[in-house]
Design goal:
alpha+beta; five-stranded mixed β-sheet; Alpha-Beta Plaits; 2 domains; six-stranded mixed β-sheet; elongated; 13 strands; 328 residues; Beta-Lactamase
């Protein structure tokens, strides 16, 4: 070889027999992108014989190749005389071949790495480019499966399994983040805290299984009512929180009332019983007077307690005269 980045055409010929038999694809094209070499790997996976491919334009044989992108790759090798690569992580394949490997049968197509090599003529000019195709389906499928597993584990770690809302730890982290974001940008953001009225009575009267169904029904209603940008979590037991990004207290009240009315209309059927229930809600719009995310939470709790004290099945908005030390 003349150097690490180029192969002499004379030295290339003795490699042809090897490359015809090993399990990689080999295509050589000239400056007009006409095929000059097409090995058995390419024939086996494309169904196109070397005779059919020979001197045909690569992009006419494979019209599915993204021509502008791949032609630029080839042209850069001709121009610079350096190797170039494509990675499956960036683009799954160059040549769309079906995947026939039984171990990775879940993949519909062959994932590929490709290397583009400059081939020099006797005048030391790059006259051809060799495209070497590696089948990396096994590697790709295993990495994607691992990525999916990690994503699933991450979702499990932040999700309350009963309700599919965020669990308390993750939700409270989001509350902290929104508090800090407000202090940087002062964009409106509001918090709704609510719980199920007389939930202990539901459990005592109907049992814990019907009680769980009530909690699930409320959570489902929250998911159906909130906006995609709203952050909903199960704070604990029968208590929930929703952070409404970009919402002031007035617009948050529309959300809270819509949620309250939808819950009031629910009927949970369990063990032959039809269970009706309501929720009480408290709203606190973030303001400069709130010294921490905990203070913000206490303000929403104070508004929630005001709804409880007012007869339940109500929505109340925090005002400065509400006491923060009264539990609910």
């Amino acid at each position: 070889m003349n150097g690490t980045n180029t192969l002499d055409l004379g030295e290339w010929h003795w490699m042809m027999h090897i490359l015809q038999t090993i399990d990689v694809g080999l295509v050589v094209v000239d400056r007009e992108y006409n095929v000059r070499v097409w090995n058995s790997f390419m024939e086996n996976h494309s169904g196109i014989s070397p005779e059919e491919a020979s001197r045909s334009n690569l992009f006419e044989i494979f019209p599915d190749i993204q021509r502008e992108w791949f032609q630029h790759k080839i042209d850069s090798v001709f121009l610079l005389g350096n190797r170039s690569y494509t990675l499956w992580e960036e683009r799954p394949y160059v040549f769309k071949f079906k995947n026939y490997r039984p171990i990775t049968s879940m993949a519909d197509f062959m994932y590929q790495y490709t290397t583009l090599l400059p081939l020099k003529s006797t005048d030391d000019e790059t006259s051809h480019v060799a495209i070497v195709i590696y089948d990396v389906t096994d590697i790709a499928v295993n990495r994607l499966a691992l990525k999916d597993a990690n994503t699933a584990l991450e979702a499990l770690s932040i999700t309350d399994q009963m309700t599919q809302l965020f669990n308390r730890a993750h939700w409270e982290n989001q509350l902290t983040n929104e508090y800090m974001r407000y202090n940087r940008r002062h964009d409106p953001v509001s918090l709704v805290m609510f719980d199920i009225d007389h939930f202990k009575k539901v459990n005592d009267t109907y049992g814990h299984h019907p009680g769980d169904l009530v909690i699930k029904a409320v959570a489902k209603t929250v998911l159906e009512t909130k906006r995609e940008t709203d952050i909903a979590g199960r704070y604990g037991g029968e208590e929930f929180g929703v952070i409404l990004i970009g919402a002031d207290a007035a617009s948050t009240r529309f959300f809270a009332e819509r949620l309250r009315k939808r819950v009031e209309a629910l009927v949970v059927e369990a063990d032959g019983h039809k269970i009706n229930f309501t929720i009480s809600l408290g709203i606190a719009e973030m303001s400069k007077e709130m010294k921490s995310h905990t203070h913000w939470l206490q303000c929403a709790d104070a508004a929630l307690y005001s709804s409880k004290r007012g007869g339940r099945n109500l929505t109340s908005t925090y005002t400065m005269d509400m006491k923060l030390d009264e539990g609910h």
